[in-house]
Write a structure and sequence with these properties.
Layout: H1 14-27, H2 40-47, H3 51-63, E1 67-70, E2 74-77, H4 95-108, H5 113-131, E3 134-138, H6 143-157, E4 161-165, H7 169-173, E5 178-184, H8 185-200, E6 208-214, H9 220-228, E7 234-239, H10 242-256, E8 261-266, H11 270-279, E9 282-285, H12 287-300, E10 309-312, H13 319-328
Parallel strand pairs: 3-4, 3-5, 5-6, 7-8, 7-9, 9-10
Antiparallel strand pairs: 1-2
Helix pairs in contact: 1-3, 1-10, 2-3, 11-12
C-alpha cells in the first residue's frame, strides 16, 4: 500500500495534499487500473484526516475521472478503454485461444463468420488509420507538459507528433477522419468528454478517433533524494510544465513539510530561474529543462558561492507506456 504523508500545519491544505498524492499514484501507475482504493476508515487511520475530508477528496477524484465508485464494493481506479483490470501476474491467454473464444462469443450472439470478418477488418482499418496521425493534447495553461510529451514521443517513436490544445481539439478533429489522441491521465477525462460531444453532434461514422492515456515516470529516485536531504536544505524545482511544478511542490511539502525551503521555476522564465539558482543547494529538473538549467548555472557561476547540485529526471513518460504505445500504433509487435 502506498503511504501518504500529510502535513497538517503547513500552508497547503491537507485535502489538496491527499488529492495530489493519489492523482500522482494513479498517473504513475502505483495504483493501477482496477485497484481498490483504501476505505475512508483505513485512510483516516493512516493520515489522521477526518473521514469526511477523505470522502470529499474521493468525490473530487471521481469528478476528475480518476476513479469510479462501485456500489457496496468501494472506490476503484478507473480503467480506460485500452486497459485491462486483470492483475499483472495473470497468466496470459494464448492468442489462438483468445481468437477462438472471441469467435465463439460472436457466433453465440447470432453473428455469422462473414459478419465477424467484416467487423474485424473494419476495426483494424480504423485503428491503422488512427495510428498515422498522433496528436498530443493538453490544456492550454499547461503548454509545457505538452511540449515535454511531444519531445519524448518524437525521440522514442521517430514519427511526427503534433501538439493540440484541448480547447482547440474539437475544431481540429472536425477537419480529420482519423487520429490517435495521447495525453496523461490528468487530462484524459476532458478529452473523453470532448469526443463524446463530437459523437453526439452526428459526426460521420467513418471517423476513427482513439484516446490513449500514458503513465508518468514514478520519480522514486527523486523522492528518495528529498527524503534524505538535511533539514533546512534549499531545493529548486524546474520544469517546462507549470502543472508538474504545482504537483511536485505539493509532494515535497507532504514529505518534508516546512523543514525544506522550496523554490520553483519554469525553465523559460530567465529571471525566476536565475534567482532559484542563486538560492538552491539542490536543483531537480525534468530532462527538457536540464540543458537550460546547466547553461544558466554556467552563466551565473562567477556570482555563485556554491554551484548547486543538478539532478535531471530520466523521463516524464514511464518507459512501459512508450512500449505499449508502440504496440498500439503498430510500431512494434508482441511475440505470438
Amino acid at each position: 500500500m502506498v503511504e501518504f504523508h500529510i502535513q497538517t500545519d503547513g500552508e497547503i491544505p491537507a485535502s489538496t495534499q491527499l488529492f495530489s498524492q493519489i492523482c500522482f499514484a494513479i498517473a504513475s501507475r502505483q495504483f493501477s487500473p482496477g485497484y481498490r482504493l483504501p476505505s475512508t476508515r483505513q485512510l483516516a487511520m493512516q493520515t489522521g484526516l477526518h473521514r469526511n475530508t477523505i470522502s470529499k477528496v474521493y468525490e473530487r477524484l471521481a469528478t476528475a475521472g480518476f476513479v469510479e465508485a462501485h456500489m457496496g464494493s468501494g472506490i476503484y481506479v478507473r480503467a480506460l478503454g485500452q486497459e485491462s483490470t486483470q492483475p499483472a501476474n495473470t497468466t496470459p491467454v494464448p492468442i489462438r485461444e483468445m481468437i477462438e473464444q472471441s469467435l465463439d462469443g460472436f457466433l453465440q450472439q447470432g453473428y455469422s463468420l462473414n459478419q465477424v470478418r467484416d467487423l474485424f477488418l473494419r476495426a483494424m482499418d480504423e485503428r491503422l488509420r488512427a495510428s498515422t496521425q498522433l496528436l498530443v493534447t493538453v490544456p492550454r495553461h499547461d503548454l509545457g507538459a505538452g511540449e515535454i510529451i511531444v519531445q519524448e514521443l518524437q525521440s522514442a517513436l521517430s514519427i511526427p507528433v503534433q501538439l493540440v490544445f484541448l480547447e482547440d481539439l474539437a475544431a481540429v478533429l472536425t477537419q480529420r477522419s482519423a487520429a490517435t489522441l495521447v495525453t496523461v491521465r490528468y487530462f484524459t477525462s476532458q478529452a473523453e468528454n470532448l469526443l463524446k460531444e463530437l459523437q453526439q453532434a452526428d459526426q460521420p461514422a467513418s471517423r476513427a478517433f482513439r484516446i490513449i492515456a500514458i503513465d508518468i515516470y514514478n520519480y522514486q529516485r527523486e523522492l528518495a533524494l528529498i527524503h534524505s536531504l538535511p533539514a533546512g536544505s534549499r531545493v529548486g524545482l524546474v520544469s517546462l510544465s507549470s502543472g508538474t511544478l504545482g504537483v511536485a511542490e505539493v509532494m515535497v511539502h507532504s514529505v518534508r513539510g516546512e523543514d525544506l525551503y522550496v523554490m520553483t521555476a519554469q525553465c523559460q522564465d530567465a529571471t525566476r530561474l536565475r534567482a532559484l539558482i542563486k538560492q538552491s543547494q539542490t536543483i531537480i529538473c525534468d530532462r527538457a529543462s536540464c540543458a537550460p538549467v546547466k547553461a544558466a548555472i554556467a552563466k551565473a557561476a562567477d556570482d555563485l558561492i556554491r554551484i548547486p547540485q543538478v539532478v535531471c529526471c530520466d523521463s516524464y513518460i514511464d518507459p512501459h507506456s512508450i512500449e505499449l504505445l508502440k504496440r498500439e500504433l503498430g510500431i512494434e509487435t508482441a511475440d505470438l
